[in-house]
Amino acid sequence: MKNTRAQRVLTLGLSIALAGTVAACGSSDSGTSDEGSGSTASGPAGWRPNDSRPENEIHVLVLGDAAASAEKAAADRFNKTSDVKVVIDTGATAGAEYNTTVRTQIGTPNAPDIFMSWGAAGIAPLLKAKALLPLDDFIKEDPKLKSMFVPSVFDEEVVDGKSYGIPMRGVAPEFMYYNKKVLDKAGLKPATTWDELMSQVQTLKGQNVIPIGLAGADKWPQQIWFQYVYAREIGNDQVAKGLAGDASVWESDGSKKALADIRSLIDAGAFGQNFASVSYGGDGSAALLRSGKSAYELMGSWHYATVGDAKDLGWTTFPTISGGAGQEGEIVGNLSNYYNVSADTRYPDTVRDFLKELYSPDFQKAELALGNLPPTTDAAQFVNSSKKLDASTKDHLTFVSGLVNDAPTFQLSWDQTVPASQQVASQDAAADFFNGAIDADGFIKKMVQITSSK
Predict the structure, then answer these.
(1) Considering its fold, how many domains does the chain have in total?
(2) Which end of the chain has the least Cβ crowding within 10 Å, N or C?
(3) Residues 81 and 119 in one domain
(4) What CATH number corresponds to the domain at position 236?
């Protein structure tokens, strides 16, 4: 599978048929730094300790979603034996808001020691400001911090030969979730083609159900629709060129056809009348799907944990579009989340050791229980060997594994591919098109501007 932005092959090796167990991350007692001394002479490369940070604490800023439970449990385990304690701080549920918090706090005593990112484009401003700690010294002390992860996932945050991120949580492709009970009541099967989806909209509206739930208040969920329809109409390779600044991609006939497809779905009432006021956080769109008020929702694999009650939850691939130039099975989403470390952390040895804890067997099992597939080289064995995973969770993980392994290309989410300064603008363009504030020509103009920005 290829990440088209980076033109790399991503072989996860996640066939759910292998035996074995994931090796625990090794721990290292070889501390090379005099933590909190204010001296960089014996610390890891790039370390500039800030002694005004809290004493005997490191802070980890996590997304405020259901998956945060795994990080909180990891901190509890770690704190049983560590003199320097890990404090989990809960941030926003939306990536753009979360990133704003990080960039606002970085370099201050209130900044997190460890925080999340989604790829190289997002951390570029922090690298320019020399605000991130290179992790290569950590990896020398514990090679498993690199070797236990799928190489092409790990390499996403290797910049100029230096490692800045450790993959965490799970590989996160996006696909269609649906409520089984709602579709059964309407006499429908999950749509496999665009034409089927369009025809089902009227049937579901007749059942007084929102055909497709959408957390429009957060904007990024709308962008997923562009990512997939463009993948079907022009293919991920062309999308990658457009995101890299090729204006002709956005101006092409295929681009205009994709926008016409999306507009036809919106105008048919597929998303209801109030999608712009529905949020993703606070159990917004997930509650609609769980309760049967909506039939479908296009979302990433993390949605399994967000919905929570999987009794009536189903999932399927994004529909094909007849006549589209995309390859069969192309997918979109996020390769992984990554943990980054502030260059001025007061306690680098504690940070290093906590990173090991996050990828212990206990942490991976917690991620699997949430429906997340860790980006490790042997995650499948955990799925096979686990006796605690229920049938639904195993089916979900198997589906995610197959989706990723069978995909000819995997396009990183658009807002994680464009320059970090344009992340919000790319989301705004999607939201403005959905809301009717701009037409197809307006969207094309915006995307040309966004992707030509440096």
Answers:
(1) 2
(2) C
(3) yes
(4) 3.40.190.10
Centroid of chain to Cα 133: 22
297-327 pLDDT per residue, tens: 999 999 998 998 888 999 999 999 999 999 9
Instruction: Report the C-alpha gap between 388 and 369 in whole angstroms.
Output: 8
Which of 7, 94, 54 is closest to 423 using CA atoms? Answer: 94
Are 282 and 358 within one domain?
no
| pTM score | 0.80
CA–CA separation, 442 and 69 (whole Å)? 41
Beta-carbon count within 10 A of 273 CB:
8
Considering only CA atoms, which of 217, 326, 197 is closest in space to residue 262? 197
Tell me: do 102 and 190 sit in the same domain: no
The residue-averaged pLDDT of 290-297 equals 97
Residues 298 and 352 in one domain: no
Tokens for 302? 């993390």
For residues 105 and 178, membership in a common domain is answered with no
> How far from 167 is each of 117, 156, 158, CA to CA, in Å?
9, 9, 11
Q: Among the residues of 148-280, which ranges form H helices? A: 151-154, 180-185, 194-206, 220-233, 236-243, 247-250, 253-267
Domain-embedded: residue 421: yes
Q: Is residue 391 part of a domain?
A: no
Residues 313 and 365 in one domain: no
Radius of gyration of the chain (CA): 22
Please state, in angstroms and rounded to a whole number, the distance separating the CA atoms of residues 407 and 329.
Answer: 5
- What is the extent of the structural domain holding 219? 172-333+406-452
Residue 100 pLDDT grade (very low, low, confident, very high; cuts 50, 70, 90): confident
Establish if 13 belongs to a structural domain.
no
pLDDT in tens, 164-217: 999 988 899 999 999 999 999 999 999 999 999 999 999 999 999 999 999 999
CA gap 158, 85 in Å, rounded: 28
Burial of 387 (0-12, 13-18, 19+ CB in 10 A): exposed
Residue 188 and residue 165 share a domain: no
Q: Nearest-CA neighbor of 276 among 357, 334, 213?
A: 213
